Amino acid sequence: MMKPFLVWLRQCGLALHPLALVLLVIFLNVFWTLTLRAFGGSFQRVAGAPLLDLENVRGVLAPREALELLQGYGTEAQALYWTFFALDSVVPLLSFGSYALLWAFLLARSPWPRSQRLARSPLLLVPFGVGVFDIGENLFFVSALASSSSSEALGLVTAGLVLVYAKAACLLMTFLGTLILTAAYGAGRIVQIRRTAHA
């Protein structure tokens, strides 16, 4: 199941022009950043409290603080949170999936021999980790909202916060990986051009 998906990712990455890939990454991530900012502002006006997910961006809350914030949301705010859950389960997969396409291109087109193997490896799945852990985090938070037991809700929020850290780790690996792969691709192309010029 994974291998066909990795092959498909590589093919999609190679099918797009590199400039189109860069623009896709920029567009999707700028779009999501602006959407988050706008949604967070609207949510705060309705709820009279900040959106939990944005509070965790500033600094991950302690489980009890996060639970108190969730339990303070009124009926209207809770309904809006479900809307956010739907958006936040789809868009991050798309926006960070665009990094996977860029990685596939950089690895497949890199002149370094090992890059060809990496272009078909599970390494391409790292950017998707941001979206996958985001979905898991959201599931735990909305489950805590629906829970009638305080101890159960606290456990669900704690599990969600663990995934916040996992998501942050994938985010860091995605940004660092993009810088490293871009630098390696650029260096490889320079070496290739010099060899051709001296041939």
What features would you describe in this structure?
The chain has 199 residues and is mostly helical. 86% of the residues lie in helices and 0% in strands. Helix 1 (2-15) crosses helix 5 (75-109), helix 2 (18-47) runs antiparallel to helix 5 (75-109) and helix 5 packs antiparallel against helix 7 (126-146). The model has no long low-confidence stretch (mean pLDDT 90).
Strand content: under 5%
Distance between the termini: 44 Å
Shape verdict: elongated
Compute the number of strand runs.
Answer: 0
Radius of gyration: 20 Å
Helical segment count: 8
Helix- and strand-based class?
Answer: mainly alpha
Largest sheet: none
**Helical amount among residues, as a percent range?**
over 70%
Low-confidence stretches: none
* Topology as a string of helices (H) and strands (E): HHHHHHHH
Average pLDDT works out at: 90
List the helices and strands and how they pair.
Blueprint: H1 2-15, H2 18-47, H3 52-58, H4 63-71, H5 75-109, H6 113-118, H7 126-146, H8 150-198
Helix pairs in contact: 1-5, 2-5, 4-8, 5-7, 5-8, 7-8
In short:
With 199 residues, the protein is mostly helical.
Any descriptors?
199 residues; mainly alpha
